[in-house]
Design a protein that fits this description.
The structure is a homodimer of 196-residue chains. With 196 residues, chain A is mainly alpha-helical. Chain A is built from nine helices and no strands. In chain A, helix 5 packs across helix 9. The longest helix of chain A is centred in the middle third of the chain and has 26 residues. Chain A starts with 13 loop residues before the first helix and ends with a helix. Chains A and B meet through helix 8 and helix 9 of A and helix 8 and helix 9 of B. The structure holds a DNA duplex (30 and 30 nucleotides).
DNA sequence: TTAACAACCGTCCATTCGGTCAGTAATCAG
DNA sequence: CTGATTACTGACCGAATGGACGGTTGTTAA
């Protein structure tokens, strides 16, 4: 029962199309990918794409929303936690890395949005909300004495998530490799430094 | 003698034009910026741009080359150093941050290149050379016992420069703020961690 | 067998794209 | 004034872009 037995003519549905689209967008950039490029990659005509999705931008919206929903789910989980701020922070970082690994193509697209259109600006706004959440957590952890006080918490937060987000530049999922190991590595370096 | 007294009709020269172009490319993305967008921002016609530069791609080439030259200059300086690998590494990181701050728009553009054209692929190739240099340095520092051995040096190197490169996402130069303070912060967090 | 359903094709369109070219305008040295 | 030097304009081009639209093909449930 792996197949739910879809009705109608077989082919792409929105989900399978989105997978291909996001991958291509990440390879060539959203603006650098034309709908014809995409249609060629899919093996169908350009007009067939518009049966599944009303516009190119909608593909972008679906992708970035998926990434953002994943990140905010982790954030919500974190906030319902009991304990010190630094523990919450570590939980948030671990969760973020897991979302990033799990939804790699979508998060990748999200982190490259520039703000040229309404859709992109909305995504940037939600990203800023998330960043503020991280910064607040770092600030709190600092007042609790668990984060070094010699660096501006806002800077610390940005460096921390700069490191986390940079995973999209090189991490590629391999069969059997769990994201938890990667999360471990990130937390070790970020919290305790790379020195022996 | 601030003005070298240029001959001919006043207006943009290649350098001043490049400044505006790179800034706009960073705001909207290279592919997302048309030559007409650029001409509007410059206040001249599109064809006037082609008096200064033979193609759009040449603007990109000039920019990324400037960034890469800056980074490789620091790398060369680092290699001529005496001392332990971890000291070289810290010097390289500091130098990279300074180049990044100094040539922010150019480095920003470089770090967003996707590899769609020959120019972009050439830039990516030089970036890979630089990354390999960093990785080798981390490896050596690990065998010398100065970098934690519980994480793959390649991963450590990438997380380290992920943090460094993430500066382009939020750092904006302010009058009177030296890049050295920022380099300090980066080195503290990266080498010793954010924990108190 | 048939009707509903879902995916797809070919053609067309207005606009925008990067780029060309022949001529013009402003500055400075002599 | 003249001529060299440099910056710029306006009209234009072929190709590519995102998207519209009416019709077609293949699959499943009844």
């Amino acid at each position: 029962m792996t197949t739910p037995a879809r009705r109608g003519r077989p082919g792409y549905d929105l989900e399978s199309l989105l997978q291909v689209a996001v991958k291509l967008f990440n390879e060539r950039g959203y603006d650098g990918t034309s709908m014809e490029d995409l249609s060629r990659k899919l093996g169908i005509t350009k007009s067939a794409i518009y049966h599944h999705v009303p516009s190119k931008e909608e593909l972008l919206r679906l992708s970035v929303d998926r990434a953002l929903n994943g990140l905010f789910a982790v954030a919500a989980e974190t906030e319902s936690f009991e304990g010190k701020a630094i523990e919450k922070l570590e939980h948030l970082v671990r969760g973020s890395v897991l979302v990033l690994v799990d939804q790699l193509p979508f998060v990748t697209l999200l982190l490259r949005v520039r703000g040229n259109t309404k859709v992109e600006r909305a995504a940037l706004a939600r990203r800023r909300d998330f960043d503020r959440l991280v910064t607040d957590l770092v600030k709190q952890a600092e007042t609790e004495g668990d984060v070094r006080p010699d660096i501006d918490p806002a800077v610390t937060a940005r460096l921390l998530y700069g490191m986390v987000n940079s995973l999209i530049e090189w991490y590629r999922p391999r069969r059997g490799s769990a994201g938890t190991e990667l999360a471990d590595a990130v937390c070790k370096i970020a919290f305790d430094g790379l020195r022996a």
